[in-house]
Amino acid sequence: MAIRKIVLQGDDILTKVCKPVTKFDQKLHELLDDMKETLEQANGAGLAAPQVGILRRAVVVLDDEDDFLELINPEIIATEGEQCGPEGCLSVPGKYGMVTRPYRVRVRAQDRNGDWFEAEGEELTARCFCHELEHLDGHLYTEHIDHFLTEEELMAYYQEEEEGMELPEETGEDGQ
Ligand code: NI
Fold it and tell me: Exposure winner among 4, 15, 56, 169, fewest CB in 10 A?
């Protein structure tokens, strides 16, 4: 496995439409393994093949359980609800913008051996499905925003989120 270089915004590669994966061979498996390692090292939530310079329809995302999910030739088959929150991209480091996405997203994709399956995600995973699949068609989340969030705006958002969250009830199980 190896860490691959992440392509940054401004590079033409990120504007191209990726071709379907047709060979489910060792080369694809190496790409997916490298993408997972690269994603882990970058501490990201998702990575698309064009972001490491490969114009093929393959993405890796963290699912609701924080496990890696490999999606080959993925397509969104159902969406539900709406969420609006800060979104970032490893190809646009250190920047965030508010993007509205569906709250729940169901995808259909092939695994690394070519077998079709379906997967569903909520919140961050759903956002990730949308974001990564857009990469495969040459689009970045920045097309959905009117400005990058300032640090103040970002902090204000998280503060509001925190205040809106219910504190977990104290269980005091062991009575200490
Ligand atoms: Ni991205």
Answer: 169
Q: What is the pTM of this model?
A: 0.90
88 Cα to the center of ligand 1, angstroms: 7
Q: Is residue 2 part of a domain?
A: no
CA of 89 to the centre of ligand 1 (A): 4
Which CATH number does the domain housing residue 44 bear? 3.90.45.10
Q: How far apart are CA 101 and CA 150, in angstroms?
A: 21
pLDDT tens, residue by residue, 6-47: 999 999 999 999 999 999 999 999 999 999 999 999 999 999
Residue 4 resides in a domain: no
Q: Which domain holds residue 141?
A: 12-162
Tokens 């400005």 appear where? 147
132 is catalytic: yes
Residue 7: inside a domain, yes or no? no
Residue 161: pLDDT band by 50, 70, 90 thresholds? Answer: confident
Total domains, the chain:
1
Contact 57, 95 (CB under 8 A): no
> Is the separation of the CB atoms in 53 and 6 below 8 Å?
no
